[in-house]
Please model this.
Amino acid sequence: MVSLAGSSPKAYSHVTDFELQHSTISLWYANNKQDTVDKALETAKKAVEDAKLDHEAFRIRLGTGTIALQQAMNQVVDRYHYVIIGCLSLVIGLGCSLAYRSVLAAIILLIPVNLANFTLQATIHLIGLGLDINTLMVAAIGVGVGIDYGIYLLSRICEEYHAQDEDWGRSITATLTTTGKAIMFTAIIMLMGIAPWYFLSELKFMADMGLLLMMVMAINMVLALVVLPLLVYLIKPNFVKRKDLFVGEGVDLSLFTAADDDEDDKTLVAAK
Model:
């Protein structure tokens, strides 16, 4: 029988209950990364199984805590990660199909976005962050960032195609040297603004979010500028040739042609 030596049972509430019938054992870990969580739960389960073999007078069960809660959240994130990304892709695909009047346009736009998402997951794994509730939000944000870059480029390609006498190579080159530069400039400015989060913040959450957002911006920028123009050049989709798209500036090039003809007529009249 354990004696409290005149102390209040509340003084021992962190290890046992007031009747001294149930006790807890707390373990401390350096972090809550997925590797640490897996090893901790594996070790704890093994200890419980070994204790059952040696002790029949009492029962040992796994409790809760930061590690257990982290594992529960990670399992939910792993289960619904692709569901969330899939739903986002579906909604974006429907909107882009309507805007460009083509399902192929949605596919061309979503390929770089999903490649960027897979690349981000691989990068997260390599740097040891892991996929959790925080990184899932960043991955969802990355889909929005990537589709923005893609829409800017594809819309400009559609406009340049008519301005460049329907030459695919010149249209893509003109797009990359105009809108492509703007996308790169925007992404670099965003990277410069977010970089202090990682290098100067003393909060781990802020530092991790800063690093993830920088990776999202950089990966989506590179894949948008490389993969999307390449897909357009290889596929040469017919929707680019249309002039009734819901995206773009909607400039009617025939107006410029008519204006040029008027100027030529005036020049001839003046010459006469």
